[in-house]
Amino acid sequence: MTATTPPTPAFRDTGLPFAKRIDDLLSRLTLDEKIGFLHQFGPAVERLGVAAFRTGQEALHGVAWMGPATVFPQAVGLGATWNEELVRRVGEAVSREARAMRVRDERVGLNVWAPVVNLLRHPLWGRNEEGYSEDPRLTSAIATAYTHGLRGDHPLYWRTAPVLKHWLAHNNETERDTASSSVRPRVLHEYDLRAFRDTVEAGTVAGVMPAYNLVNGRPNHVSPYLREQLRTWTEEDLLVCSDAGAPSNLVDSEHYFDTHEEATAAALRAGVDSFTDHGTDSSTVIGRVRGALERGLLTEADLDTAVRRQLSVRFRLGEFDPDADPYAGKQPFDTPEHRALAQEAAEQAIVLLRNENLLPLAPDTRIAVVGLLADECKLDWYSGSLIHRSTPLEGLYERFGADRVEFAEGVDRVLLKTSAGTFLHVPPAPEAAEPARGAEGALDPALLAGRTDLPPLTAEPAGSELALADWGEGVLTLRAPDGRYLSVAEDGYLRASADQPGGWIVQETFRLEPHGDGHLLRHVGTGRHVQVAADGVKVADDDPEVFELIVAERGEDAVTRAAARADVVVVVAGNDPHINGRETEDRTTLRLPAQQERLLRAARAANPRTVLVLTSAYPYAVDPADLPATLWTAHGGQAAGTALARILAGDVSPAGRLPQTWYADDADLPDLLDYDVIGGRQTYLYFEGTPLFPFGHGLSYGAFSYGELTADVVDSSVRVSFPVTNSGDVTADEVAQLYVRAVDPSVPRPRRELLAHRRVGPAPGETVELSFVLPLSAFAFWDVAVGRWRVEPGAYELLAGASSEDIRSRVTLTLDGEPAAARAVVERGLDGADFDEQSGVEIVDRDRSAGDAVTAVAGKEGELLFRRCDFGDGVTGVAMEVSGEGTAEVSVGDGPVLASLSPSAPTSGPYDYITLRASFAVVDGVRDVRVRLRGPLRLARVGFSG
């Protein structure tokens, strides 16, 4: 007899569409197998030949955490290129390297968690480095380009499956898992959602990741916007992956639900499909899902929906079609092309902020390069390990010759003397050194431990001279003579063991705290003081050592000597991405750290021909008035130093542009937790002050002129064109920017708003004609009176130029639009959150699943203004849906209070609403309505009747 070959399962049949194959595979999975798929680390189903699958692979500007990979500029630097074509190629290179790395290490995932499209609303946000821009259109343009590169061009199969982070309105690390962003409808639609929407609609996104924070009082992991907004933008089955530990936060820190079973069920029903919680251990999540099923909080159909979305991604990644997957097999890794692309991206990201005829430098210039970052190539939390490395010093050596470049780091050289008269001493390290932290790759680098194979510091008659760098706010690092940073491992001993500060909890930072005639040395990571013990120097809870700080050399003195001997001094200042401004930690000021300010002043005093190079993840407030040249670059990846040297030498003309406003002073900033960009007059869109450097700013070694701007309405779009001419004698790029301003709007509109941009590189004397076709919807705003987008009729000024403030050509266009309609309050009433203006009010959740309410900010009286409310022939009564306790008052225009309503007793809970009613004299016609709130009263809705 001949054995019968079993039929090929339908899910293995490449001739069937993915949807039918997913249906078949889903039908074969048991309930327990489906539950297992809901954790980030989904197990294999061996009986079906289905492999294990992990959601999540960090790839923000290169493949991160999994060992050596090409490191491109930070995301904010990619945003500064304003170059979608370049960023698409970067995304393509990153995805190719992810595929190549997976061939040799199956831990490397293809569901990549990148890019970050949170808008850079506030420059003190600790994760500023991860976003692209404060502008939603620029952000979505760069994000779409990056995800296009990550996805690939095949119509069916994806090279990697990108997930956008972090949904939604997330710009604070302070209390990030408990703080609520109050986001009014206009800001929600015109600002925060827009950056996500355009990229999702482009078809290059596999999913999103909700953020840790709450929006309008409701955690993002149970956000109704996942269903009401995100999933309406595409027909694809988008995969929603939770952020790490966030499902547990719903109960543990946010106390939004009483039990984890309720929280898990609510998140799954809201649209979370994969739970990133408890690391690789899926048992807790599995137990919660089973508990929710047993309690009737979930059905198997709910699980099917989530598993279907996961399988959709896996099919698109070619997992079930290895012979048909065009991206399977060997892919390029660390190729000459990737190295050249890293350099090109670093060059294009550099922004020339100021230049008083000092740059470019002549080939024979004698240069002093100084500063804490002058010989650094810093990485951040979402970087891979460097294969190649170029610091500013190395780049200048290579370009100008080592004999013409002098270096002074500017650290203070110090000795720490104990109360016994001995000094901290760094023992010599064994010759066989361990690899750099993270070089071998780690699924969770937060779990990487410090080294314990090296001898701890001791106290000896002869001490070691340490390099002290103060990174601001009193946070400092100490480096041994051999270049290793002092660090504390799990055993508590102090060793010179780290190649760089880093880790989820940085173990290489300290504070010197005055104590009597000396200082205590506090280790920031553990919070403990340093103690000198018989078996070595360690941190402890008691008996801290009192040190005398002996300064052998001030950094300013070394900088002064080097600067005085040079033709030009290049000061490289900025931040370490792991210190004072990073994930979990917001900045407190725009100012440069005091030590770096002193180094800059010393260099400038010794040599007026000073170039300031700010290398940082975010803007600084620096006074450039007495500096002939200033540049900014984000941490530029592996080729940062080479790129900077080529810009300084004029081999490449700078053409980066600022992707966010640089404010002149901390006083210009709103509160970090104020998400109302309209009412708070935030970002270039609404800021009415004078910025240090405006959005879109960036100078060139070349010169460009703009010709006449023309605009015509054709069908349902506006066609705009203008010429740009390279009027100089330098080959250079120009970033032409097109803005719009509503001339006489009925509601607050942006001072100017970016509509489009293009980076072009005409040759000297050449003119390029730039044309843009803009849908009329680009001129719309979210009209809270009708709950949808509306193009207001009237005049719009189109402005073309080199930045948001450097306008070279303009024209006024009249659009017919849709006339405003008064609010039909008799028929529709007023939702509390649909106000036109407010003061002292925050938006909160109407209930745990959907809807908004408003309440007065604690300790304040709140006021809401609803404009142009149509009362028709007249109304005589008001009804308010409220919960809690307090008082709500209603008035019309600037008139007296018509009604004051308060619950007779507090309602039983914040979601238990009652209706309060009152009568008043007839009010008719179209009038403005004011509502004042006092106390912890929640207002959901106001209705009127005759």
Q: What low-confidence regions span 5 or more consecutive residues with pLDDT below 50? A: none
The percent of residues in helical segments reads: 10-25%
Strand order of the largest sheet: 11-28-27-26-12-13
Q: Give the overall shape.
A: globular
DSSP, total strands: 49
How does the helix and strand content classify structurally? alpha+beta
What's the pLDDT, averaged over the residues?
A: 96
How big is the Rg? Answer: 30 Å
Quaternary organization: single chain
Strand content: 25-35%
Number of helices: 18
- Sheet with the most strands, sense and barrel status: 6 strands, mixed
* Ends apart, CA distance between termini: 89 Å
Explained architecture:
- The protein is of the alpha+beta class.
- It has 18 helices and 49 strands.
- The strands form 15 sheets. A six-stranded mixed β-sheet has the order 11-28-27-26-12-13, sandwiched between helices. A six-stranded antiparallel β-sheet has the order 18-17-14-25-22-21. The protein has a five-stranded antiparallel β-sheet with strand order 40-43-48-45-46, with no helix packed on it.
- It is globular.
